[in-house]
Amino acid sequence: MRAVVYKEPFRVAVENVPDPKIQHPNDAIVKITSSCICGSDLHMYEGRTAAEPGIVFGHENMGIIQEVGPAVKERKVGDRVVMPFNVACGFCKNCLNGFTGFCVTVNPGFAGGAYGYVAMGPWVGGQAEYLQVPFADFNCLPLPQGAQHEADFALLADIFPTGYHGAELAGVKPGESVAVFGAGPVGLMAAYSCLVRGASEVYSVDHVKERLDKAKEIGAIPINYDKADPVQQIKERRNGNGVDKGIDAVGYQATRAGSSAVGGEQDEVPNIVLNQLIEAVNPTGALGIPGLYVPSDPGGVDENAKRGALSINFGRLFEKGLRLGTGQCNVKRYNAHLRDLIIAGRAKPSFVVSHEVPMDQAPDAYQKFDRREDGYTKVILHP
Predict the structure, then answer these.
(1) Domains, the chain, with CATH or none
(2) For residues 199 and 172, is the Cβ–Cβ distance under 8 A?
C-alpha cells in the first residue's frame, strides 16, 4: 500500500510499504478515507523528537472496516468508523478508570500508545491506504453510513476531543472567562469547546493572521501577541482583571513576540506560555495544559529544555492558588458525545480545516503546514 513515510528532518515521501494484516483475533483492518496532519506530526517532521526514518505518520484516522478478526463482535465489515489517536485495550486499570491515553497494555514499559508516533508503541500510522486497529470493538467509534460530516468526524480522532480536554482540564463552566494561548488546530478547538460549554468570553492568543481570523469567526476575541504583552492586552479589556481559566494549546515550541508568523526564524522560549498563563488567570483559577511537552527535545534551546526541564514561576502559581491539569487527551472519554453533537448540528469543528488534498500531495502539504504558508491551518489527506 501507499503511505506517508518520514525520511529525515523536513522531508516525507509517499512510498510503498507492506499492507497491514490481522495479527490478533481482536484486530480490524480499516480502509482509510481521511487522515489528518497534526501539529504533533510536525514535531517529528522537524526532527524535534527521536523519530527514526521509516516511520509511517498518521494518528488521526477514519475509514471503512475492510476486515475483522474472529474475536471482533461489535464492529463489522463495511462499518464507517473513526479511531482515537490513543491505542488502548479497554481493560487495564487506567482504561477502566477512563484514562485511555495511558493504557499500560499496548506499549509495554510505557503508559500510552498511539498510531504512527515515536515511542508510542509498534502501531503503524494511518496516513496510508489501510490501517491495523487493535482491540477494534473498543477503538473503533461507529459513525453514520455515507459521506456526510466526513471532515467533522475526522477531527474526532484527536483535535476536537483534545481541545475539549483542555477545557475539561481547566474546569471551564458556563459564564466563565477563558484565555486560550495558541490558535492552531488544537487551540481553536479549545476555544470552540469553551464556547460550546457556555464560556462568556474566550480570548484566543496567537500571532498568525489566519488563525486569529478563524478565532474571531467562531466568536472568540483575538489577541495578537506581536502587538503587545498578551496578558496586559487581556487585562486592559477586562478593566484590569484577569480571566477565570486558562488553556495552554502551544506546548514546548512556544515563541516570543517578533518570531516569524509564516514559518521563518523562530525565537523559542519553551516556558513563556506557562508563565503568561500564571499571570493571566485570576487567583483560585485553573490552567488546562493539553499543549505538548516532552521529556526529551533534541532541538531544545538549552540543556534544560533538551531534557524537558522548564523554569516556571511556581511561587506565583502557589501564591494565587492556581490548579493545573496536564496530559494527553483520553479521547474515548469524549468522542461519542462530541460525535452526537456533530450529528445533532450543535457542533461543526471542520471550520478549522483549510485544505483537503490527495495523499500523494503530502510532502507539499507538510512543508506548507509547517511554514504556515498559503493559509494552511489544518490539512486532511485522502488516499
Answers:
(1) 2-158+331-382 (3.90.180.10), 160-326 (3.40.50.720)
(2) yes
